[in-house]
Amino acid sequence: MKKVKLAEMDWVSYHDRVKDGRCKIVMPVGAIEQHGPHMSLNPDVLIPEHIACRVAERSKNMLVAPPIAYGYKSQVKSGGGNFFPGTTCVSGRSLEEYVYDVILAFLEHGNREFLIINGHFENSMFLVEAADRAVKYARLSGIELKVVLLSYWDFISEATVKKVFPDGFSGWAVEHGGVLETSIMLRIHPDLVDMSKVVDVPPAEFPPYDVFPPDPTWVPSSGTLSSPSQATSEKGEWILAECIEKIAETFS
Amino acid sequence: MKKVKLAEMDWVSYHDRVKDGRCKIVMPVGAIEQHGPHMSLNPDVLIPEHIACRVAERSKNMLVAPPIAYGYKSQVKSGGGNFFPGTTCVSGRSLEEYVYDVILAFLEHGNREFLIINGHFENSMFLVEAADRAVKYARLSGIELKVVLLSYWDFISEATVKKVFPDGFSGWAVEHGGVLETSIMLRIHPDLVDMSKVVDVPPAEFPPYDVFPPDPTWVPSSGTLSSPSQATSEKGEWILAECIEKIAETFS
Amino acid sequence: MKKVKLAEMDWVSYHDRVKDGRCKIVMPVGAIEQHGPHMSLNPDVLIPEHIACRVAERSKNMLVAPPIAYGYKSQVKSGGGNFFPGTTCVSGRSLEEYVYDVILAFLEHGNREFLIINGHFENSMFLVEAADRAVKYARLSGIELKVVLLSYWDFISEATVKKVFPDGFSGWAVEHGGVLETSIMLRIHPDLVDMSKVVDVPPAEFPPYDVFPPDPTWVPSSGTLSSPSQATSEKGEWILAECIEKIAETFS
Amino acid sequence: MKKVKLAEMDWVSYHDRVKDGRCKIVMPVGAIEQHGPHMSLNPDVLIPEHIACRVAERSKNMLVAPPIAYGYKSQVKSGGGNFFPGTTCVSGRSLEEYVYDVILAFLEHGNREFLIINGHFENSMFLVEAADRAVKYARLSGIELKVVLLSYWDFISEATVKKVFPDGFSGWAVEHGGVLETSIMLRIHPDLVDMSKVVDVPPAEFPPYDVFPPDPTWVPSSGTLSSPSQATSEKGEWILAECIEKIAETFS
Amino acid sequence: MKKVKLAEMDWVSYHDRVKDGRCKIVMPVGAIEQHGPHMSLNPDVLIPEHIACRVAERSKNMLVAPPIAYGYKSQVKSGGGNFFPGTTCVSGRSLEEYVYDVILAFLEHGNREFLIINGHFENSMFLVEAADRAVKYARLSGIELKVVLLSYWDFISEATVKKVFPDGFSGWAVEHGGVLETSIMLRIHPDLVDMSKVVDVPPAEFPPYDVFPPDPTWVPSSGTLSSPSQATSEKGEWILAECIEKIAETFS
Amino acid sequence: MKKVKLAEMDWVSYHDRVKDGRCKIVMPVGAIEQHGPHMSLNPDVLIPEHIACRVAERSKNMLVAPPIAYGYKSQVKSGGGNFFPGTTCVSGRSLEEYVYDVILAFLEHGNREFLIINGHFENSMFLVEAADRAVKYARLSGIELKVVLLSYWDFISEATVKKVFPDGFSGWAVEHGGVLETSIMLRIHPDLVDMSKVVDVPPAEFPPYDVFPPDPTWVPSSGTLSSPSQATSEKGEWILAECIEKIAETFS
């Protein structure tokens, strides 16, 4: 298997790969966030990193950067909320600045294309800002930079959703710690999932607004927004296969 | 009709209304953004301000703050993109800081509850950050602050959607400058809409990722993401009535 | 009457007006600040916006941007102080960043000339910084930007002052909520002035320094720094006519 | 003569002076800015530092902090403009942050009262912001801080102005590098003034607005905004004596 | 072996470990930086993470946080310089803010003690600032926080140095990519070292100052500041054993 | 003796010296920090300023900028710690921004080379960041800037150390307020040293880590980290002579 993690390369080999400016740097960005009592705190990091590596393995000109582990503050309706023990998040501007700086650092090596694979919904707009600012800064130096930003779940087709949720899909909004993420983790890191601890909850229902400080009673006390009890490694592979296939196809 | 815009009150009258700490400050936040050749640049400001005022009129203890007009950068898949002439947006942190400061300023007058009515999708996460930080800062001074954050369209029911789109709804994602916003504007500011200039476009279709710098060819050249040709003032009233009713009910 | 508010134009019409780079964008910047028990909180916004519009109407190539409503913290000796209920101000850097971003956003549409009309004394230095930084940033991209910054009262002649204050002028420093602003508001927004609530105070006198936290006993409890009792709509028109005439002449 | 410069004390002696929290820290803040071909670049630093020391010598409980030498950007109408060689200025936020941090550092030693003596007009609003923020930050820790902010020239009486300008005063606005500052420098640092190099210019006249980038043709090429030719050391002493006397009286 | 990586725990188990406030959070902070043609880019991340885990395994109350991978800009005299391909560093304030936010996030879970294990010399002062600010912020909320900051190499004794460098030690300053780091990596990640690519260089010598932009000719073209040719896994174990032993003893 | 302090020059003379872009601006940066009961708070400012002036006197093309007096927070193991009364320090980013702005301001006058002489260990990394950012910003404008950064003590040879410490040198780390700094101050500012107040302490010993908040019991209560009792003016001259000679030779 090809070495795709750039941090595991020596600088000379890395330089050989990137110096013509055609290499794409794949940057996984995630979060440390509770995902229920049955799963570790890091699916939002491990899943995009896994996808990044498998995509890069299929490509001739992609390298995977070390993932950025701490993401933007978990929100009640998408991640349970920032008050859960274990959920360990940074401010929007810290994330933005950190990602912005990392992009510009890779730019110095001659890289001109980036593929940010996001694993945590709440990161999105701060990644948008980081990417937009990096592009504009590069332009001041006469450099044209291209940053693609994606959240892996946006590549899952309706067909796959139907296959994964034969009894009906309760919607993306409540997939936090549910069948989708749990299945993927069962596939790629079964040691970090303990299905015996799964708490079976009906899909969370939320009012059409947010409130600050958040109200913990809005969220199931387990922290998952829907039940992961139907998760299986096989479903995880269906999802991953599709995401990896499509992402690889689109960007390689 | 009651005076609900606080900026139109003298300070003594305002003080009388807020000094017991029970008044809710309603803050409309929008954007200056192209909405097609048939409509002005300010629906994202005028609509939340209108809703805010009509909600406040039904309440005993709400006042509407001056709207914040310039919002976060328009994104291709939700607002056409930040490259359109007329789209005039600020950075995430400018918006965040400005809103944060305004909340803290109202706090000084004794206010403890805020209702932010957002009219521009892209603002959301920066408003989240502003609200979250304001709550935490207030807490350092021993003050419990409550900020509700809503985007008005989240209060529109499926029933109304069906009524407004009898031929099928192409989804929230492409409602930028489409039937929904145009209908509301026809209802509240008909002078700012010119239906003769409507460009009839099929609903925009986008790939499942974003790219920076944005690619203008992704967007219909008119700037609208779906056709507003079926917009009517009557539909606007249906939508508004529902939003106002529900928001008023929930928060008054 | 010509349409001069750019936010009320559709983007295509706006683009037609600005694409040759000769249009001047007029930006009113104000504050939400108490102006005595007889007047609304928004004269510092409404007056510069009114002047901006009337100036733009006389010009072939001016458009008025949505006003920036929240300004820098009111100071005791110029605005009564930041502790008055209703006075709702932002920090210096928030104002600076917000204005800076707005200028740069208009720059993207091809605009190269800006006319900032300030309505709130305390804003001045932060507007200076925003303008200076915008000019320097634009230069990095090879763009020459020009920003004119004015406070409308600087265009009032001694002759007009004598006419408006036949019994003697107590000086610009104490004109907060006094004859000048009240007269203009009587002229342009009589509904936002209630002369029956005027509190007659002698011109405020201050020591030659400032103190933080401010001492509320320095300020008349009404919040006005001189008496507005001699204000009339006619005086308002004299002042406006002169300001508008001169500004239009100088910059059209 | 008493030692009043705190930086020249050892820490134990300093501690003895400040530990009861009654000492006032006097902070001179200036600028490095051209003052014409006849004078050094540092009058805005040396004058407030001199006044600070002479005021502190008369007091039982004042110590003078090291002056902050680099101030906010020189403006055309008050300091000739930021484009003059030798004028070496920082951004508003750098000045604000630096002063804010210094105040908070002195706070840690037990100090609760500050007297900022400003020698450069353009600094004022950024010092206001630094002082305001420091007071608020201290309050979060339960500490009541008091910061007085003054510009020394505001203590000069009309009587002294008449004596210094027997042929008529052309106004504070154009006193940059003129009789006032030159006279004071002749009195306290005659080695830094060379009257043979004085350029005799009529008082500068400016339009009622500012422009960015600044237009160098607005300013006399010498950099002074009025003629310093009538400056004398004796006049400098009149001015200083009054400022020092009044400041000492008011704050000791 | 005990689970010590907190990101691999589910939130309930994590909560059980930290809720009494006695757990110490160990935070490895490193850098992505060239370490010669014979070694990967990530020793500064992997080494402190390894030490953190082995220390935590010996303790009853320590958990290891996900490492922060991107550190402050490599300097010529300590890391070869920021211009090497592969060296991928962030600005001081990005690092500071990111670490600061992460500390405060862990604080919310009840944690009160932190042990930052630094693996990259250049990070030090920015970690100092992050720790100092976090302590002060926590204090505003009435929380006493304790942050220990160490660089692992400071725990290596002179005796070990003598053993590792039997022919004489050329000093810590040039140990970048040399015997020390290479030996440790041979011990913990032999797959990331290729001794056949070692470039034998004499210890780098530098002038007693730094220059910006850096001068690449100061640095051996291999990027190592001394020769790693004498590195062995055994030496790596000696060093690690000592560091781990001492750190565990001091802080457990 | 030549005039080397640029703040003491008039702008025309200054301009004549710098306009060809070959002048080097020497910037002393220090700190206000306790140095024991026998010495003033400003050695870290006065020593680099003195060296700067004597170096500039020997050069044809150097001018000395006003020193930056307030530096980064004193650390326990290098400066006694930030909790000592009299130690008056700013945050890292304030120092960084202030220095960055000053460099860029001198750049505007045509200067292209800077020599920062640091007198306070803790400043180093923040000066690195200021210099690095200034170089990069200048490059955006097409300007090549060169900044040399040095701490004067790095120019002291082993031979001089032996001569100054005939009984053995306890190391640079504990030289705070010890023989080295005291000797230099005795030579250049004997009025700011009182040898009768010297407290004789053994060299401080510290654990191989730092802790926040700092533990005052780690530091001798006098604040010096080693005994200054053997300091003499003659030793000061030896040290200065060497530093000045070498710095002048290297950079003139």
Automatic annotation (TrEMBL), chains A, B, C, D, E, F:
Annotated keywords: Hydrolase, Metal-binding, Zinc
NCBIfam families listed in its UniProt record: creatininase
Name assigned to this protein: Creatininase
Enzyme Commission number, as recorded: 3.5.2.10
Top-level EC class: hydrolase
Family: Belongs to the creatininase superfamily.
A single MF term (Gene Ontology): creatininase activity
Keyword Zinc: yes
Domain of life: Bacteria
Pfam families associated with the record: Creatininase
Cofactor(s), names only, from the UniProt record: Zn(2+)
Source organism per UniProt: Litchfieldella rifensis
Keyword Hydrolase belongs to the record: yes
Transmembrane segments: none
